[in-house]
Amino acid sequence: MLGLLEMQSEAGRIDLFYGDESQVAESGYVPYGWVFEDEVVEIPAQRGKAVNIWGLLCRDNRFVFSTTYNTIDADFILQHLDSFSFNLQKPTVVVLDNASIHTAQKVKERLQVWQNRGLFIFYLPPYSPHLNIIERLWKELKARWITPADYTSTDRLFYAVYLALATVGTDLSIAFSKFNGN
Question: Which fold has domain 2-29+44-166?
Fold first, then answer.
């Protein structure tokens, strides 16, 4: 089914967005890597604040996002999908995983209203994050677009997050391959 949606999107009949949430915290993101023997790379370890991100991403790097310091819950998802549904240019499908905040009763009760506006929700099969292209954006954000130096202060970190997210599709982009159905 996802392959059919991808074909419809590629033909220009629908807009296809992939949605999910992520978090960037002061505790840092420690990717796998190596350094030269005389090189030091560090991310200060600290507990504290985090910024939560909700995003919708297309393969052409159109990106809609919202950040909050609060927990992202079903009410947050409901509010943002509702707002998104008022600005559609053509029938639009949002691909989501089966997280409880995406499948909450209050979200399901709103599906018909969104469908009347041209917004449809497609749920991925369980345990298939590899099918959600926004996961790649979260990895790029944490592993490449935010640097270890950005973790030196909360303000600097959150500014770097917002700056990176705000430039997705212009200064920052991901070259997605065509969906091949596998």
Answer: Nucleotidyltransferase; domain 5 (3.30.420)
